[in-house]
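// run 5 | inverse folding | seed 20
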């Protein structure tokens, strides 16, 4: 079952750059809620509370309950705009979800038992995480906060593909429906030796001596 998290919001009357700037100065975040067959609604959230929440994975991959004076709408975070260098969230976009309609969302991957695996305990072996999240398709009630990958048996030369992931009931990977070429690697265990670049410029010692024809002085 998907875990939900409640966040209190307020309706936002004023819009535009000036109004958004005033909100941010007051410690609020301008945001919008759209989708679900309803009109978009402009809202505002407490910056401090959202700043703490956004440090957790669930904020990005879970169903969120936006509560407006007790009126709760279930949403997913679809976009977050951050200030380029300040610890400041500039704007949030939320999409309403329908309990009876399939949704798509990106879910983080959790890698378990890597250090105790044959690959993890072998010197000189690199365990590469090619993906750290995957897009899933499911009903809102089935949306997982994360997907676990047990690497306990991973050995040198092993490759874990998308099709190898153990998904919760009701969850699919849309990428796999596009063909075998989309069944990409998620984890690879390989030797850590780096290949020497073949296109490196040869040193003087590597250049064969040129043959010089000498003319006899007569």
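// decoded
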């Amino acid at each position: 079952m998907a875990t939900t998290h409640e966040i209190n919001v307020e309706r936002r009357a004023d819009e535009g750059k000036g109004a958004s700037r005033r909100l941010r100065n007051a410690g609020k975040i301008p945001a919008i809620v759209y989708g679900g067959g309803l009109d978009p609604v402009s809202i505002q959230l407490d910056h401090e509370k959202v700043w703490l929440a956004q440090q957790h994975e669930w904020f990005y991959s879970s169903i969120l309950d936006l509560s407006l004076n007790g009126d709760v709408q279930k949403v997913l975070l679809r976009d977050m705009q951050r200030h380029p260098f300040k610890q400041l969230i500039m704007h949030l976009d939320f999409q309403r979800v329908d309990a009876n309609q399939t949704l798509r969302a990106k879910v983080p991957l959790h890698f378990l038992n890597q250090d105790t695996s044959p690959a993890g305990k072998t010197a000189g072996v690199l365990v590469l995480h090619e993906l750290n999240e995957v897009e899933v398709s499911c009903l809102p009630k089935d949306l997982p906060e994360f997907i676990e990958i047990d690497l306990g048996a991973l050995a040198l030369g092993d490759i874990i593909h998308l099709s190898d992931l153990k998904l919760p009931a009701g969850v699919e990977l849309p990428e796999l429906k596009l063909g075998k070429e989309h069944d990409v690697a998620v984890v690879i265990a390989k030797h850590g030796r780096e290949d020497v670049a073949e296109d490196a410029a040869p040193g003087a010692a590597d250049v064969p001596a040129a043959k010089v024809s000498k003319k006899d002085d007569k």
